[in-house]
Design brief:
The chain is mainly α and 392 residues long. It has one domain. It has 16 helices and two strands. Strands 1-2 form a two-stranded antiparallel sheet. Helix 3 packs across helix 12 (309-315). The radius of gyration is 21 Å and the shape is globular. The two termini are 33 Å apart.
Length: 392
């Protein structure tokens, strides 16, 4: 994969039929569906402390499979920007029109994310501002603008600047009142790093973990780099190379990302909570490898059919699934019942207790999570069956 290969495609005239085929890829939608299912599985363990490690987030440095889900969403969003914006440009829409719509969509997504943070109590004094949907909104807008007004080299420069710039800020800038990381305080200690300090300064009392937030302001910078990796992948998929060359290129770049991420982690540990640069590179490599395999199976080998439908149910309505994922928390964790011993427990605790009657704590937690996935899937299936695909 070369810069020239990708650059040659950006803005190049294409036939209407080719544009139609390129506006959507089934492999991308299937990957998105896998990510939605994984998100629900991770977000709804019956008892997180008893759950199996793959569906539990790493507490700090290191990673688990659960940590790969969110960056995969951001990566896929970058691909979707290329496919969608390119089609609109070919239809005659101006860059300014598309940018205006992107800004509007970003604002709506951000507002939806803030709203969901407040459900169901809407506590004005502690209402969280940062969040998953908010980070997606910011990355979407910045990546979209860069795609519209920057060439491929510019996107690469921006991505590298985000990764190296974030490392420099976290490693070389003294934390006010704390000192220089690596000299006055150990590097990447929870609460004692620049990212967490900025979040406390801006949103004190409104943070997810009280003293820090996994979707912090500063750590959004490398998340933007993840979206830009998706942009570059989308541009590669729109080149005139054969499908096999595209798959091999993604696989090779993905393997390279995995290696670079692991090597870089020796100096800048892989850490989802801080979305470290090594984490961004490693997870982009993972997403590329998975997409290359799905692309080979679905677009090249044409292994389609019934097995893709359950995943498309999620993948075609990812925004709705995201929102429902957040809304499902309200009844499960704020609704209360009286247990057999007379104590008041949440509905989540009650349901998990029912599974524990015939399963081990770990299996009960897994069954609870699988039930949440199936429940959400059933609702998304109703939309899919009616061909209702919600877009903002």
């Amino acid at each position: 994969m070369t810069i020239a290969d990708i650059t040659s495609m950006k803005g190049a005239p294409r036939s209407a039929e080719t544009a139609r085929r390129s506006s959507r890829l089934l492999s991308v939608d299937v990957f998105r569906g896998i990510a939605v299912a994984g998100m629900l599985l991770v977000d709804y363990p019956g008892d997180e402390s008893a759950g199996y490690w793959p569906i539990r987030h790493s507490p700090w440095n290191g990673w688990t499979p659960a940590d790969l889900i969110f960056p995969s969403f951001v990566f896929l969003m970058g691909i979707s920007i290329v496919l969608s914006f390119s089609t609109r440009l070919q239809r005659g829409e101006t860059r300014r029109q598309i940018a205006f719509h992107a800004a509007k969509r970003s604002l709506i997504l951000f507002a939806v994310g803030v709203f969901l943070n407040g459900v169901p109590e809407f506590p004005l004094a502690t209402w969280r501002i940062e969040g998953v949907v908010q980070r997606i909104a910011i990355c979407y807008l910045i990546a979209g603008v860069l795609f519209l007004w920057t060439d491929t080299r510019g996107i690469i420069v921006a991505m590298v600047a985000c990764l190296l710039g974030y490392w420099a800020l976290m490693r070389l800038v003294p934390v006010p009142g704390i000192g220089l990381p690596g000299r006055d305080v150990p590097f990447l200690v929870p609460d004692l790093n620049l990212n967490d300090w900025i979040d406390r300064a801006l949103f004190s009392g409104r943070l997810y973990n009280k003293t820090r937030d996994p979707e912090g302001v500063l750590s959004t910078i490398p998340a933007i780099a993840t979206a830009l990796a998706g942009l570059l992948t989308g541009l590669w998929l729109r080149t005139e190379r054969t499908s096999r060359v595209k798959a091999v290129g993604m696989l090779a770049m993905g393997a390279g990302g995995l290696v670079i991420g692991v090597v870089w982690s020796r100096w800048f540990p892989i850490n989802k909570n801080l979305w470290t640069s090594s984490f961004a590179v490693y997870t982009a490599g993972f997403a590329l490898v998975v997409l290359a395999l799905l692309y080979w199976m679905i677009e090249i080998r044409r292994w389609r059919g019934a097995w893709t439908i359950p995943l498309l149910v999620f993948g075609m309505n990812a925004i709705v699934a995201f929102c429902f994922d957040e809304l499902l928390w309200a009844p499960l964790f704020y609704g209360h019942l009286r247990g057999a011993d007379g104590t008041v427990i949440t509905i989540q605790q009650y349901l998990n207790g029912q599974f524990m009657k015939f399963a081990s704590p770990a299996n009960a937690s897994l069954l609870f999570a699988v039930s949440a996935v199936l429940f959400c899937w059933a609702l998304m299936w109703l939309l899919y069956r009616k061909r209702i695909f919600v877009k903002i």
